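Batch manifest, entry 17 of 40.
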Amino acid sequence: MKKDINQKKKKKFEVITIMPILSVLIAIILDIVIDNHPDLRDVDNNFYRGFLYVSFGILIALAIITPFIKQLKEKYVFRCKFVAGVYVFLTLLNIITAKMLLLPQIYFPSLARIFFVFYDDRELLLNCIGSSFFLLIQGILIGFILGMICGIAVGWSKSSNYWVYPIIRILGPIPASTWTPLALVVFPTGKSAAVFLIAFGVWFQITVLTCSGIQGVKKVYFEVSSTLGATNRQNLFKIAVPAAAPSIFLGFFNATCSSFVALMAAEMIGCKSGLGWYINWQKQMLSYPNVYAGLIIVAIFCYVLVTLQFKIRDRLLSWQEGVVKW
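Output type: structure tokens
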């Protein structure tokens, strides 16, 4: 009986792992067999097909390796159908844009043209990624530090809560991008203005959730610790702040997402480099393959940064792992 169950699981695993490979293989065959539309630009560009070849090799390697790694096997089996669906979508998109030309190619370029941008503009894109990364990190760090200070002060001190919290409630909900005209006047450079806009959005999220996290700690904890001889400072940093850590990380997650909006807005207006500047520049030039390539990089950039943040969170707050999933 157990042997039959294992054989069924093995057969199911083999079928599921074949699905992504089969979807890529179909994509390659259709791209070769179906000719491009006569009016398609850059017909000699085969970068999309090269991407499919690389994907095909990676998926075969994963199908061979995963049976020997249990943790990877579970994750790969779970994602196989989605991966296959992605390549089916790319195949349909390739047929619509490159083979049949059903959409205006100035706004909906072929996948081959988009993938060519990653090669043709690789140096400029790398510089833009580096510029956006350092700008984002500066804004997040400044906003996080100021948000922690304000959140702890407002959440712990009654006088700070009375005088400062109303100001936070008035200024905080205003979108960071709304401050762009003022920031460009007050700050000497576009980059410093961009750092301010990012920091402003992060500051509000961290402040509010740090404050609510501290105020949400049960008073009985402080009563017990005070009975044992804890000082007011020890109650704050040994009980209140650690107990508020889940709320702080949730605020950091929300702040990271909103900081990308502020980053794109700031770079489009006041900076001469960065992914937001690149996308806006290419849009003005009506070079939509470059615009889509920039958007893909922004999506990957945001995904990687938030994923790393959750990995750190799960390690530091292992007791709360899985409460907020990503």
